[in-house]
Structure formats: structure tokens, C-alpha cells
Specification:
This protein has 196 residues and is mainly alpha-helical. Helices cover 73% and strands 0% of the residues. It binds fe (ii) ion (2 copies).
Length: 196
């Protein structure tokens, strides 16, 4: 597992819903959108990996992470990965992405089903954070560079539009959004992350 990109876990997220909208309205392409949506995930990962953060703090962070990752992964799979898989030379990147998303999905389901076993919950959340962190690093350091090289701007813009459509569709369809946790002395980080 690659080393984590160190970030202060108390740092405020840089991406809010309103910033996401602003960025969307300015137009853009898939590389820009994916990097933008990785940022809040990285912020949440830094809390999920933080050995000093308590379970009470990590619980709402995990729920937010789960919600954002599901939207991002779904939109990514159905826009960019589909295109990658349709090309012989890029197919493996798309398939690898699907496999890593499925790994994260499986872990999130396992975490959801844990009852009365805090150590296992904490361990699986940390592993999930490491798996997704590694996945994000690979996408940014390798896959997106290939996308820039192989797809022209028009293609990247079209994929980006589809990504945005799918992401927003899933966001709107979510019946149950993560709830605001009751404020406690050490839950300010979770509070600051709730409006991502
Ligand atoms: Fe991905
Ligand atoms: Fe991604």
C-alpha cells in the first residue's frame, strides 16, 4: 500500500457543494472533474486514517465518504471507464478501476454490517481509506495522464458532461443523505465536512 499523502485532518475541505456547482457552470472536462471530486475524498481519508481520531469522530466521516465515493465511482465507471474499456490499449485501466471500486464497495458493506466490534470497524475503515487512497493516486499519477494523451479535448469534455450528469442524477436520487451528527467536543471536523 502506498504511503498516504499527509494532510492535516483538521483542515477544512476545499470543495463545497456550491463550489462544485460553480466549477460545473464554468465548463470543463473529465480530468478536471475527477481531480475536483477526489479532493473531498482525500480530506475524509485523512480523518479515516488518523490514529488519533476516535470512532465517534470517524463514524460521520465514514458515512459522508461512503456517499461521496458511491456517487463519484458510479459516475466514473459509467462515463470514463466505459470509454477506456472500449479501447484495446486502455481496457485494462478501466477493468482495474472497476475491480478497485468493487473492493471498496465490499469493504463498505462489511463496515455497515459490523455490530459491537469497534476494533474491527476501526481496522476496516483504515483499510478502506488506504485502498481508496491508493486507487486515487493511481488514477491521478497514471490513468488520467493516459486520458490526456489519448483523448482530445472535445472527447474529454463530452465524457466530463456525462460524468457530471450521472453524478448529479445520483446525488438527487439519494433518499437518505448523511445526517448531521450531534455536536461534541471533538466532532468539529465532522461538522466542517458535512456540507461537502
Ligand atoms: Fe475510480
Ligand atoms: Fe476517481
Amino acid at each position: 500500500m502506498k504511503k498516504a499523502a499527509k494532510k492535516k485532518s483538521s483542515a477544512k475541505p476545499t470543495e463545497s457543494s456550491s463550489k462544485r456547482e460553480a466549477s460545473k457552470n464554468e465548463g470543463g472536462e473529465i480530468i478536471e472533474f475527477i481531480k475536483r471530486d477526489h479532493k473531498p475524498l482525500k480530506e475524509l481519508i485523512s480523518v479515516m486514517k488518523d490514529p488519533k481520531a476516535k470512532m465517534a469522530e470517524k463514524k460521520p466521516v465514514f458515512k459522508k465518504f461512503q456517499s461521496l465515493l458511491l456517487r463519484h465511482a458510479h459516475a466514473e465507471e459509467q462515463s470514463l471507464y466505459i470509454e477506456l474499456k472500449s479501447r484495446k490499449d486502455l481496457r485494462l485501466d478501466g477493468v482495474e478501476g472497476d475491480v478497485e471500486h468493487a473492493l471498496a464497495d465490499g469493504l463498505m458493506e462489511e463496515i455497515d454490517s459490523i455490530q459491537n466490534d469497534n476494533d474491527t470497524w476501526m481496522a476496516k475503515v483504515k483499510v478502506l481509506a488506504e485502498v481508496v487512497e491508493h486507487h486515487i493516486e493511481e488514477e491521478e499519477d497514471d490513468m488520467l495522464k493516459k486520458v490526456r494523451k489519448e483523448f482530445d479535448l472535445q472527447m474529454r469534455t463530452e465524457i466530463g458532461e456525462e460524468y457530471e450528469r450521472l453524478y448529479d442524477e445520483l446525488r438527487r436520487s439519494e433518499v437518505e443523505l448523511p445526517t448531521k451528527q450531534s455536536a461534541s467536543a471533538d466532532s468539529h471536523r465532522a461538522e466542517s465536512l458535512r456540507d461537502l
